Amino acid sequence: MELSKVQICLLLVVLTVTCSIPSCVSADESESKEFVVTLDHSNFTDFVAQHKFIVVEFYAPWCGHCKKLAPEYEKAASILSTLDPPVVLAKVDANVDQNKVIANGFEVKGYPTLKILRYGGSAVQEFKGPRDADGIVAYVKKQSGPSSYEIKSPEDASSVVDDNKILIVGIFPEFSGEKFENFTTLAERLRADYEFGHTLDAKLLPRGDSSVAGPIVRLFKPFDEMFVDFQEFDVDDLVKHVEETSIPIVTLFNKDPKNHPFVIKFFNSPNAKVMLFLNFTGEQFDAFKPKYEEVAELFKGKNLSFLMGDTESSQGAFQFFGLKEEQVPLIIIQTNDGGKYLKPNVEADQVASWVKDFKDGNVKPYKKSEPIPEANDEPVKVVVADNLKDVVFNSGKNVLIEFYAPWCGHCKKLAPILDEVALSFENDADVLIAKIDATANDIPQDIFEVKGYPAIYFTSATGNVSRYEGDRTKQDMIDFIHKNRAFVAKEDSRKEEL
């Protein structure tokens, strides 16, 4: 789940719009008109260049999530078109070959993907708002407005300082000069993730030294020390400070929705991720929490982020990492290169020494692989981590492989279709249709980027790797294989078919 990876979008506000001027269209006309602008390779660049702010959805016609979003996106577009100035929502069919160049340029890896394009497309941000019409409208209005709001009164401060969210406020003697300009640059760069304010009077703010005249940047947060001040105004340093201090020393992963935004930030962090899973309702939690927080403090600033996950709430993570409840309390560390390090049935007094051993390079990686199946006579061949590279790169075959999760509904729907594809190539010795349980096997993410299920890749007999993004129908998959397969000379040394 992009758990992130855990992939969650939150937020919203309801807006209503009335038609009160003569030029407004009638209700019937409004219902028939499409407010979402359709773009493609022929008009995308010119259209985007004309707009200071625009939202673009990259979609595929076969995508169920895209179909669900479509009416909400259209409704939001109709509301936003009435603003002064109007805000444009657009869409691009990224399943069309000629449009894939555009999608690839924006690093579109799944559907639907929404991007915010500013200043004619010169600045691009992820759309991180909700996916219902009212939520889209509220989020877009906020993103298209000022990146930072002036706090002029205690009422202004109380309306933006929230005990459940992060707020970044710049305190200045005057709203001018290099430091103020750097603050506005920071706000513009990070506005998709944080709320910003600026003020001339620190006394209006509820926490921190009220006598400071600035320049200073104060970050309010609902955890740990509750606020932190920065006096360094280099933009890159500010970004680093904000990112580091906006994650709790220990992130809690449970059913409390107030923790969800920080769980997302944890999994999006570039740090190695140290995750302790245990039962929050038992005595273990009280025994582990203070010691785990001590460890997190000890390794603060050393490229490690720490999380405690409740067993009951972490089933998705257990499925993702292939963990079992009988292993708890357990620690798993995931590094940026996909490496995993596991310590099952850990005791509270062992945590610090084990994390230190990991940092010192004294812990061996944990490789997750199912056993190679002895019988493998179904149409779609089963592959595991221990033979994945041999099958897809060393077999001399053209391989279409599905990375799936046993609990995934889309994967279950695809299974009989893959069987039919495999049967259509059963007499073709150069083509193999395969599958691998991505929750029970480690996947080399540097080759196959699997962030959702099912993920389908094709490896030609000459080693070219491409992701299959076409319709999930038998004929479309067969056509794709024929189009992308490679023919190689027969060799006596070729490995026998699985």
UniProtKB/TrEMBL annotation:
What GO MF terms are annotated? protein disulfide isomerase activity
The subcellular localization recorded is: Endoplasmic reticulum lumen
Pfam families reported in the protein's UniProt record: Thioredoxin, Thioredoxin_6
Root EC class = isomerase
Major place of residence: endoplasmic reticulum
Query: Record's GO cellular component, any one?
Result: endoplasmic reticulum lumen
Name the keywords, alphabetized: Disulfide bond, Endoplasmic reticulum, Glycoprotein, Isomerase, Redox-active center, Repeat, Signal
* InterPro entries cross-referenced by the UniProt entry: PDI_thioredoxin-like_dom, Prot_disulphide_isomerase, Thioredoxin-like_sf, Thioredoxin_CS, Thioredoxin_domain
Catalytic activity field: Catalyzes the rearrangement of -S-S- bonds in proteins
E.C. no? 5.3.4.1
Claim: Isomerase is one of the keywords in the record: yes
| Disulfide pairings | C63-C66, C408-C411
Residue ranges of domain Thioredoxin in the record:
15-195, 342-486
Asked if the keyword Glycoprotein belongs to this entry, the reply reads: yes
Q: Which SUPFAM superfamilies match?
A: Thioredoxin-like (SSF52833)
Q: Which residues form the signal peptide?
A: 1-27
Record-stated family: Belongs to the protein disulfide isomerase family.
**UniProt name for this protein:** Protein disulfide-isomerase
Organism of this sequence: Castilleja foliolosa
Taxonomy-wise, where does this protein's organism fall, top ranks first? Eukaryota, Viridiplantae, Streptophyta, Embryophyta, Tracheophyta
The encoding gene is PDIL1-1_1
